[in-house]
Amino acid sequence: MSAPPVSPFLGLTAGPYSAFVSRAGATLCSLTREGVDLVLPVDPAVGPVMSQGEVLVPWPNRVDGGRYFFGGVEHQLEVTEPGRGNAIHGLARHREWTVRARDERSVGLGCRLAGAPGYPWDLDLEVTYTLDADAGLRVAVTAVNLGAEPAPYGNGTHSFLTVGGAVDDTTLHLPAATHLAVDDRMIPTGDAPPVANTELDFRAPRRVGSTVLDTAFTTVTERDDEGRAWVTLSGEDRAVALWADATYGWIQAFSAERPGHPLHRRGLAVEPMTCPPNAFASGTDVITLGAGETTTSTHGIRAVAPLRGRD
């Protein structure tokens, strides 16, 4: 008699918080507090849309044409955003991850990257999701270089925060002083203008309104005593915050501007990133992971008190 199929969905609970994680891509499929969504849930019949909840390794965002140099050697990644001619969001989001540890409130998922086209290095990846009854969700993303040569590395995640309703009616606090200018293919031009006196200035809580966001922010102006940056999305009677540790110097905000799409401006993707778009080509903030070295980045999501911002 054959064994029953293993479900790709793993449930976690801690106090008022619940989450579902998928072994497919180590994806965060849902997160709720007292049954109220904190992220836009993934439809299990469809799977992630616009990279909902995905883990972006060994690079986040885009690589121009998929082409980059590392250690004086040229590498060519598969172009996975054909409309713009870029490689996007890494190599592990469509792989099946294995369960390495699990209990009621935590799960650790692992994946081995070894000799992928355009990325010839050997990495062991692990993502651990942990729920706490008070602190909400904590996510740790770890990479170990199993090879004999240094490897370029970066990571990010892609959860859509929600407080119900349209993004237009929310208040956003995103404490970053500069942003990357990009071309029509979403590749940085090299300029990082200040947000001051522009519609991209959310250093003080402000209503999103009609602002279109698909923007990499940096120069974080506020961190707590633990070195964490906080981004808060708020409605009138509920709010959700994402925190990111000091390894994350970049935060992409994406308002899902896709008229006619079911997710059009329904949530705000807040994407902590260790490096900016096109980092493998530019070299900006790329982590050089030496042979045998390990790096870990942590972030989290929790319900918080609503903000009172300006219009």
Task: Please explain how this structure is put together.
This protein has 311 residues and is mainly beta. It has one domain: Beta-galactosidase, Chain A, domain 5 (Distorted Sandwich). It has one helix and 26 strands. It has a nine-stranded antiparallel β-sheet with strand order 10-11-12-13-26-22-21-17-19, with no helix packed on it. Strands 16-24-23-20-18 form a five-stranded antiparallel β-sheet, with no helix packed on it. Strands 1-2-3-4 form a four-stranded antiparallel β-sheet, with no helix packed on it. Strand 7 and strand 8 (73-76) form a beta hairpin. The chain starts with 8 loop residues before the first strand and ends in a 7-residue tail after the last strand. Residues 1-6 have low confidence and may be disordered.
Write the topology of this structure:
Elements: E1 9-14, E2 17-22, E3 27-33, E4 36-37, E5 55-56, E6 62-64, E7 67-70, E8 73-76, E9 86-88, E10 98-103, E11 106-116, E12 119-132, E13 136-145, E14 151-153, E15 156-157, E16 159-161, E17 171-173, E18 176-179, E19 206-207, E20 214-220, E21 229-234, E22 239-244, E23 250-254, E24 268-273, H1 279-282, E25 287-289, E26 294-304
Antiparallel strand pairs: 1-2, 2-3, 3-4, 5-15, 6-9, 7-8, 10-11, 11-12, 12-13, 13-26, 14-25, 16-24, 17-19, 17-21, 18-20, 20-23, 21-22, 22-26, 23-24
Q: Calculate the terminal CA-CA distance, rounded to whole Å.
A: 64 Å
Which bin fits the share of residues in helices? under 10%
List the helices and strands in order.
EEEEEEEEEEEEEEEEEEEEEEEEHEE
Poorly predicted ranges: 1-6
Spatial strand sequence of the major β-sheet: 10-11-12-13-26-22-21-17-19
CATH architecture label: Distorted Sandwich
Which structural class best describes the helix and strand composition? mainly beta
Whole-number total of structural domains? 1
Task: Note the total helix count.
Answer: 1
Please name the CATH topology: Beta-galactosidase, Chain A, domain 5
Q: What fraction strand?
A: 35-45%
The tally of strands reads 26
